[in-house]
Predict the structure.
Amino acid sequence: MKKLTFVLALLALFCTVNLSNAQSTRGFGLGVIIGEPTGVSFKGWLDNKSAIDGAAAWSFLNNGSFHVHVDYLRHVNIESTPSGEFNFHYGIGGRLKAKNSNNNNSDDARFGARIPLGLDYNFSSEPIEIFLEVAPVIDFSPKTDASFNGALGVRFYFGN
């Protein structure tokens, strides 16, 4: 379990380092998400329509657990105004949920796929994005199960 968490953390770090060199006018964003899960969120733009995002967060369901996800996102512009840009995003990604030990019973970690769907607003005058996202989740391990993630968040962008 520790090895898998370490590998996923390295993958997320690799993505953030490579994304900082990506060609986009938006750059790399770091912020927070509140909901299921709640924690730290990042997003790196690959171009003006696609990005990689992820989170290292805490899930409060079922006695709590550490949650990591990384998603590939595509964006569709809904409306652009002088004050900002409103987008719909969709994508696919993976999630690891590391369970805590509880009363000498250790629950297995869960690994599965996410299908994020959401709305983003990027301000023109400030390097800030607010977003709302829901993501159906299908766990493949240790057993097949379905659930949802949902969160509201904000990111500050360190532009190019």
In short: Residues 3-7, 16-23 have pLDDT under 50 and may be disordered. The longest strand covers residues 65-81. DSSP finds one helix and eleven strands in the chain. The longest helix spans residues 2-19.
